[in-house]
Amino acid sequence: MLVCALAAGCSEPASETAPESGPASETPTGATSSTSPSPLRTPEPADPDQPTSWGPTVGELERAGRLVAEMSTRELAGQVIVGRYDGTDPAAPAAMVRDLHLAGVSVASSNVADEAQVRATTAAVSQAHAADGRDWPAVIGVDEEGGVVSHLGGVATEFPPFAAAGAAVAGGRAGEQVVTEAARATSLELRDLGFTWVFAPVADVTIGSADPTIGSRSPSGDPALAARAVGAAVEGYEQGGLVSTTKHFPGHGGVTADSHLRLPVLRSSLPQLRGRDLRPFEAAVEAGAPAIMMAHLDVRAMQAGTPSSQAPKVYDYLRDELGFEGVTITDSLGMGAALSEDFPAIRALRAGADLLLMPVDTATTHQLVVDAVESGDVPRARVVEAATRVVALQLWQQRVAADVRVPADVVERAERAAAELAAAGS
After folding, report:
1. In 3D, which of 371, 270, 350 has the Cα closest to residue 306?
2. Residue 113 in domain
3. Residues near 318 by Cβ (< 8 Å), separated by ≥ 6?
4. DSSP label at residue 320
5. Residue-level pLDDT at 227
6. pLDDT in tens, 33-75
7. Domain ranges, residue 378
8. Is 107 helix (H, G, I), strand (E, B) or coil?
9. Pairing mode of beta strands 149-150, 144-146
10. pLDDT at position 3, please?
11. DSSP reduced 3-state for 416
């Protein structure tokens, strides 16, 4: 059993800079959420080498529980935040990770100058994470979906939009293998640059021209093809030793507003969601997805009036109905839809988020989490549960990356895989 028993891409407009509401010492009132954590399930009997459904072994999960149990409140709060930062100086994200004990950072296009600078940034963050006494890798993530959302333009290989994956799998098993190899190749290239996470694949089923946000980022408007493409991609990322992040649950492709700007309403009934939007996420879970990103949507069939990233019933559906046991991460908390409610980070954490992605002000959000835990507004056990999952997943990434070496010709392999995906999807 788990030692603590738990007893333990998101690309956004640069103009969005509004701070989270309230001073750092405040805590939200009236937030609708569960106050007790859901259990981290482990197989019985608990063989330490037995893998979980999302990657880490039972032993890694137990070790993560022991590591998290020793954390101070400030360390615990940092371990559930992936920060944002300004500029291209590698010292800036490194200082944040060290001083705030962050799980890691997200590297956006505004943080990228050239290949040497990217490598210096990821190395500085890794070193700062280790200097903080943590012997597991930092979460160093990037939106690198291919197509229009590629934050490493000019640094990493240019892959076609993920719509090419949906078209490729229409050709059968050979097309699925092309998608898997593309994900594996980009995993290895990103790891070579120092990344441990990618905020992909996109699992949203697009409705076509009425969809203003996802479009060609979606694998397909056909849920069956989208499901096959997502499952194939998840397998490839896993083979490459990179943490993938299937997004944006429960499906952003069916709304007609942009969540970067305001809260979109998803009006589909639950049977409609099951038949369409949820199918690629089910495929991701079946493929062993390690992390799923929660969208900022008003999902009327699950919890009306609340952004899904802050809605306990949406997290409950993902875990109880789809059987997902891995890390849940919010979409960027700097987006307009997330800011439709006060204290989005605290509400998300209470609702069931394990990682808080890119809050507007990382330091303020860190203090808010510290205050919420110390006041009891967010039960410490909830944050322990979240941090345990995150650390366990990073232990998995560390192990798999050690076993799967980056080849010397990684760039050539990535370029070849991108060309093959483009050809298969044409």
Report:
1. 350
2. yes
3. 249, 250, 281, 292, 324, 328
4. I
5. 98
6. 444 455 555 555 678 999 999 999 999 999 999 999 999 999 9
7. 73-424
8. strand
9. antiparallel
10. 36
11. helix
Q: Does residue 343 sit within a domain? A: yes
- Give the whole-angstrom CA distance, residue 261 versus residue 265: 13
Residues annotated as catalytic are 260, 331
b/e per residue 5-16 (b: at least 16 CB within 10 A): ebebbbbbeeee
pLDDT for residue 423: 97
The pLDDT tens digits for 192-203 are 999 999 999 999
Confidence at residue 173, expressed as pLDDT on a 0 to 100 scale: 96
- Let me know: does 130 contact 97? Beta carbons within 8 Å: no
> Is residue 393 included in any domain, yes or no?
yes
Residue 249 is inside which H or E element, if any? strand 246-249
Distance of alpha carbon 132 from alpha carbon 75, whole angstroms? 9
Total-model pTM: 0.89
C-alpha dist (Å) from residue 156 to 121, 151, 230, 287:
15, 9, 21, 26
Model pLDDT, residue 337 = 77
Q: How far is CA 4 from the centre of its chain?
A: 24
Angle at 185 between CA 319 and CA 221, to 5 degrees: 55
How many domains in the chain? 1
CATH code, domain with 319? 3.20.20.300
Compute the residue count for the chain. Answer: 426
Give dist(CA 220, CA 208) in Å, integer. Answer: 9
